[in-house]
Amino acid sequence: MPGTDTLTSAAPHTQATSPAADAASQPGRGLPGWWSFIEDRLLLNVATILMMVAIGIMFYEASSRSLLSESHWWAEELVRFLVVWSVLLSLGVGTRHGHYIRMDLLLNMMPQGLRLAFSWVNSLIGLGFSVLLVVAGVQEVAHLQAIGMFTESNLDLPLWMVRLVLPLGGVLYGFAFVGNIILLLRGQDPDPPTEGENL
Fold it and tell me: How far does CA 119 lie from the centroid of its chain?
């Protein structure tokens, strides 16, 4: 029947997605390939390795306390440093992929123009915060290097090297908002409404 043919031919058409639509749902769409490589391949892997090392040290410290009745002062401090480095290195990537608490229900109900306006506000405020983090981090690192302060435990690490993650994390966090601004300048929504996003 002609009506049946029309319905059956229309059904696959509504379910099929074009490559352009698939690309539009990716967080790194419209950005250079090296940008996505640094975010997804380099930073995420380094942050994951740091977190795994922190978990391994925590397990070692817990086992040492339980089985050998020995405690290592450096373990707690090193775990704290590794976790902070892991979080700050991956914070920008998580922001670019939309992995943070936000009002999805309200944003998804907004028209496209209003969503883009809020994305501009979000990106500019986030970029400003990133600049403040970099400036404060550089000042703190310079101060710690000038006074020659070391960590509390017997690791004896220069504290300025540990706190170097503050300006570095601020730069990486700022790149996330720069990427959003690039997409906004091209008229693209940096965080389109989707059912779910994966790294």
Answer: 17
Answer yes or no: is pLDDT of 23 > 50: no
Backbone angles phi, psi at 165, to 5 degrees: -70, -20
Determine contact, residues 86/51, Cβ cutoff 8 Å: yes
> What is each CA distance from 171 to 72, 131, 164, in whole angstroms?
34, 8, 11
pTM confidence score:
0.70
C-alpha distances (whole Å) from 177 to each of 31, 91, 194, 195, 198 are: 12, 11, 20, 22, 19
118 burial level (CB within 10 Å; 0-12, 13-18, 19+): middle
- Alpha carbons within 13 angstroms on the beta-carbon side of residue 94 total 13
CB-neighbour burial class of residue 111 (10 A; exposed 0-12, middle 13-18, buried 19+): exposed
User: pLDDT digit string (tens) for 153-172?
Assistant: 778 889 899 999 999 999 98
Q: Domain extents for the chain?
A: 32-97, 101-191
Q: How many residues are there in the chain?
A: 199
DSSP string, 108-175: HHS-HHHHHHHHHHHHHHHHHHHHHHHHHHHHHHHHHHHHT-B-SSTT--BHHHHTTHHHHHHHHHHH
Among 50, 25, 28, smallest CA distance to 169 is for 50
